[in-house]
Design a protein that fits this description.
Elements (H helix, E strand, L loop, with lengths): L1 E2 L2 E2 L2 E5 L5 E5 L2 H4 L12 H6 L21 H10 L4 E5 L2 H4 L9 H16 L3 E7 L5 H5 L6 H18 L5 E6 L1 H10 L10 H25 L5 E7 L3 E3 L5 H21 L22 H5 L5 E5 L4 E5 L11 E3 L5 E4 L16 H13 L5 E5 L17 H19 L4 E7 L18 E4 L4 E4 L1 H12 L1 E3 L4
Helix pairs in contact: 3-5, 7-9, 8-9, 12-13, 13-14
Bound molecules: 5-hydroxymethyl-3,4-dihydroxypiperidine.
The site of 5-hydroxymethyl-3,4-dihydroxypiperidine has 8 residues, from loops.
Amino acid sequence: MSVDGFSTATSRRRFPDDFLWGVATAAYQVEGGAGQGGRGPSIWDTFSHTPGKVRRGDTGDIACDAYNRLDSDLDLLASLGVRAYRFSIAWPRIQPVGSGSVNAEGLDYYKRLVAGLRERDIEPLATLYHWDLPQPLEDAGGWPLRETAERFAEYAAIVARGLGDGVSRWITVNEPFVVANHGYRTGVHAPGRADEAAAAAATHHLLLGHGLAVQAMRAELDAESQVGVTLDLTVVRATTDQAKAVAEEIEAESNNVFLDPLLVGTYPAGIVRASLLPSPELIMDRDMAVISAPIDFLGVNYYAPRTVGLRDENDELRRGEVRISDHPGAVTVTGEGVASTAVGWPIDASGLYDLLVQLHGRAPDLPLYITENGMAAEDYVDPEGSVRDYERISYLRDHLAAAARAIEIGVDLRGYFCWSFLDNFEWAEGYQKRFGLVYVDFGTQRRTPKASADFYRQMIAANAVPAVTG
Ligand code: IFM
């Protein structure tokens, strides 16, 4: 087999026979159809329509128009050879105002999606919350409010009841760190609030929402159905021995603030800045037990490691070399000679291996899925009509080799979902940053599978990581 100069003769790095190969998307990033089918407004509609919030004023109103292209996109998906598709359900399609009555047309759209996947022998993996909170719930207080977690559990029960026949793997919340941090602490994402206390409260209520949703879904689903949660996890490295403590603190702030409650039912007090943790009066008696109730798997989104050094008073003057991080004691450093993606994230697959091994050490019995991994690139269609995204091929090959190495030493990794199926709405970056295996011309909605799509298809068929010789 070969893909444009890449010899893909398989090496010995094979994956288990039942390894779940998939691709991922999220509702607001691909669906479009914002005003169709009885869908209500979400915080991302409001945010993206607010001038200055999203690059070039892009919105998800149309996105990839996936809402109106269900059958052709399903065929395209099947042509990639994937065994699974991770998509998210837009809460405001199911409950246009975030509570109360169900919009049958919205539910029907996902029923057709799930049936279409099953017809093509593709397993659906549904995420309940990938950031599109119904606007009326934000108006009432959003995730900093406990009631939002309760509403989320009601929505989870509705969806489980409606789609439980076709979907057997579920993810409650995608990347609660990003929701709390970007949405409520820094405000670079919807709903755009910059309020540390609100972010800490959102952290708790996102976790509680997850736990309540697990309970509600288990009551509706059969015993074989699996429910998990997806975290964006990173490995934080230190530039020097002196910076190790701050690196550990930063890693704990993004990873352990979520992992600890889920795995052991406590917040990581001591190592994490107190302002990032929910104040004790928000935590009710049974909350931590609800949050730490067993899950069937953990979804891991991994893109890049982070390297941090100690901040010194000259850093403000050296902003070209270092990025001032939001931690008062640290700067983020891009190592010399380290390649990075179009969004500036360093490319280093060893971080994925380290992370998987670390997670397995913490929770050896918890199956893991890589629910997102991929890279943004400056892709374009060349005069011959091809998108030769060789950097992405290398990225995928190296990260999958790292995943395979982790499996070889005993990590219980069950599947890998490339982010993303299609180029799509990259939140505050709009449509400039392309993550897809399939190129989307947003003017015409024409889809062009990139070289990486061929590569991925061949890798799935071989069930192994190819050795690159060319
Ligand atoms: O596009 C996002 C996705 O929605 C969540 N995880 C990271 C991706 C790339 O930034």
